[in-house]
Amino acid sequence: MAVDSGHRDGGCDWDGRWNHVKKFLERPGPFTHPDFEPSTESLHFLLETCKILVIGAGGLGCELLKNLALSGFRLIHVVDMDTIDPSNLNRQFLFRPNDVGRPKAEVAADFINSRVPGCKVVPHFKKIQDCDESFYRQFHIIVCGLDSIIARRWMNGMLISLLSYEDGVLDPSSIIPLIDGGTEGFKGNARVILPGMTACIDCTLELYPPQINFPMCTIASMPRLPEHCIEYARILQWPKEKPFGETSLDGDNPEHIQWVFDRSKERAAEFNITGVTYRLTQGVVKRIIPAVASTNAVIAAACATEVFKIATSAYIPLNNYMVFNDVDGLYTYTFEAERKENCSACSQVPQDLQFPPSAKLQEVLEYLTENASLQMKSPAITTTLEGKNKTLYLQSVKSIEERTRPNLCKTLKELGLSDGQELAVADITTPQTVLFKLNFTA
Amino acid sequence: MIEKEDPVISEEEAAQYDRQIRLWGLDAQKRLRGSRVLLAGLGGLGAEVAKNLILAGVKGLTLLDHEQVCLTGCSRDLMIRVDQLCSKHNIKVFCGDVYGYYGYMFCNLGQAHNYVEEKPKVVKPSGESNDGPKAKKAKVDPNETTMVKKTASFCTLKEALAVDWTSEKAKAGLKRTPVDYFLLQVLLKFRTDKGRDPDPQSFPEDSQLLRQIRDDVLESLSLNSDLLNDDFISYCFSEMSPVCAVVGGVLGQEVVKALSQRDAPHRNFFFFDGRKGNGVVDYFGPN
To answer: Which of A28, A281, A426, B206 has minimal Cβ neighbours within 10 Å of its Cβ?
Structure first.
């Protein structure tokens, strides 16, 4: 991978500044990597050359930037597409009340740069999808503090796409380690991914708990919880009654929330359900995840430690998935997540699609979205027919969706597909298209 | 200590703490909002704990660190600055240290420290008795006591350490002056110059330096260098724990006395010589 040459630090290191880091790198110890040799080179690498990308400047991102900057990492880039909200201030401590509305990446970078002399954080106020291969290729290590599984999968896919194989053998210099952290309330996890070598995000997709979506029958006829009443108002009553005309429900609009809240209270009263509050209404509508500084501190610290270990090769990295839970007492567990032989993201094994020729395209689409190992969001399917590229179905562009919608009801045979046909599937969960091989069953 | 009244959470705070209120509820957040925490120790761990507590929304966080925060530590200058700052705000100041077998304690309780002393009641003799001279003596009743109000005034550390010894009066009083006071000046200067206390690991160099500083300090005070002989040099390294116990005990009790405003405070230095087993209280400052 191509990396920037280092720059001079400008002489801002006072006597003893990096003593705490030197203790790890310039002397032997009982926990070092078996191949470790104490030297002054590692610290020099950290300070002058090592380039780290931090994804997300929120709960985990602020902690990560603090930890990395104070550990000697100076060439740091941070990407975040969000702006600062008052509810961030209970844990995203690089931000102050008068930063509300400003881009998180920029405020975070400013804070660290002023607070830690010599540290140069470069902010990027954009989505990860807006950066290309050449951007990601410049980093030695990438550490994520994301708040969505889709984004994680995309990042995972991007790094896998950077891998290069020569005669089927993976070139180690094309591997960019990915350290991924995630938190929710009092729970969190941290994992080390070496794309192409260890389990990737998609290898362990089933580990993620399903999103809470209440069954429609419960919401419609048998509510028991205040949440059911709120979902009733949100999913059924709002589209029916259109209280604010054609406007869709906006979780940040207090008037909208108030309306949902009032309707929810009425429904709750009908069924003798207690607990509907304005706060709960907001939480359900906006799908708010509770968050606190301490969990983020723990998980970010675990991640930053792994960045340090990998950057210096001085210690054996986490192998490879740590969970943390302090809901009741404190629980933590580390295990080695295994690669999936036929992982759709990293196995390079062509994905199999087994369908009878009489199956409708709709069924293929449902498989792609509902299968636990694939969990695609809105796949676009294309193929090559008679030497020409043909879009079978694509949802994200209205005109193309309308044009290809009739294909959903056609059978695979009717669409002209044959046994062994390759289908290229694109989706927001991956930066590269996934190739599937159609296998006709009887 | 948690305040008795229910703290009010403003709308701004409800927005700021929303994500954690969803975790532990509004009542818990209110209790946090009314509590004051003392955090002792400000190393790496202390810094992180401070951050997490403040983000959680406690009412007050008091920071306490017994360790030397800067290289020169509780240097003479730092102590003088803290003492001056506290005096301005009517905060009582106590200083103390142990150097080998020698220890000291200093206090500044302000310009008018009021306290009470419990004294036995004095029964005045009636004037008419004809029993003779004995009867005229005031009798002390051991069973009854009374609280007597008193006031003591204290000077600042700066003033205490800057006593002028050149005047005739001062020179005359030298004989009755504990030599420990000058030893303290030497050790404080060592700390200022070296940024640390005498270290057994550098015994030869530090001894040399102590001797030199002794000469310099006494000269600067216009005093004879044989006022403080070389003896002390071998005995002021490290901290002898029994000496710490003694000085610590006295200092602790002085704090209790000052806070409770009961019983006469030591005014204003207490010196302890562990070699002789001598403790002495004396006042140093402007007269």
So the answer is: A28
Of A186, A290, A297, the CB nearest to B19: A290
CA–CA dist A73, A70 (Å, integer): 7
Name the architecture of domain B11-112+240-281: 3-Layer(aba) Sandwich (3.40)
Tell me the helices (H) and strands (E) count for chain A, helix number first: 14, 15
Instruction: Classify residue A83 by its DSSP letter.
Output: B
Q: Do B55 and A186 touch (CB under 8 A)?
A: no
3-state secondary structure of B131: coil
Longest Cα separation, chain B: 88
In whole angstroms, what is the distance from residue A382 CA to residue A355 CA?
A: 17
Residue B75, pLDDT above cutoff 90:
no
B56 touches chain A (CB under 8 A): yes
Question: Cβ B20–A283 below 8 Å, yes or no?
Answer: no
CA atoms within 13 A on the CB side of B65: 15
Break chain B into its structural domains and give their ranges.
Answer: 11-112+240-281, 114-149, 161-234
Token pair listed for A375 = 């969990």
pLDDT band at A8 (very low <50, low <70, confident <90, very high): very low
Contact, A393 vs A407, CB < 8 A?
Answer: yes
Measure in Å the smallest separation between the Cα of B2 and chain A Cα atoms: 21
What is the enclosing helix (H) or strand (E) of A243?
A: none
A128-144 tens-digit pLDDT: 999 999 999 999 999 99
Q: Quick one: tokens of B217?
A: 């300090």
Task: Work out the burial of residue A277: count CB atoms within 10 Å of its CB; fewer than 13 is exposed, 13-18 middle, 19 or more buried.
Answer: middle
pLDDT in the model for residue A359? 94
Determine the distance in angstroms separating the CA of A292 from the nearest CA of chain B, rounded to an integer.
Answer: 5
Is the ipTM above a cut-off of 0.95? no
Q: Which residues pair with B86 in a beta bridge?
A: none
- Count Cα neighbours of A240 within 13 Å in the Cβ-side half-sphere: 8
Residue for token pair 């989505």 = A127
What's the pTM?
0.66
Q: What is the pLDDT of residues B160-195, one digit of tens each?
A: 999 998 888 888 888 889 999 999 999 999 998 998
Q: Tell me how crowded residue A240 is: count the other CB atoms within 10 A of its CB.
A: 8
A62 contact residues in B (CB cutoff 8 A): none
DSSP 3-state assignment of B120? strand
| CA R_g for chain B | 26
Note the pLDDT of residue A150: 92
Tens digits of residue pLDDT in A278-304? 999 999 999 899 999 999 999 999 999
Residue B168 is predicted with a pLDDT of: 86
Torsion of the alpha carbons at B265, B266, B269 and B273, rounded to the nearest 10? -140
Range A215-221 average pLDDT: 88
Nearest-angstrom CA–CA distance, A314 and A320: 17
Catalytic option among A62, A131, A217, A343: A217
**Chain A residues lying within 8 Å of B22, measured CB to CB:** 279, 283, 288, 290
What angle do helix axes A59-70 and A104-115 make, rounded to 10 degrees?
A: 20
Q: CA of B230: how far to CAs of B130, B179, B191, B213, B224, in Å? A: 64, 13, 18, 11, 13
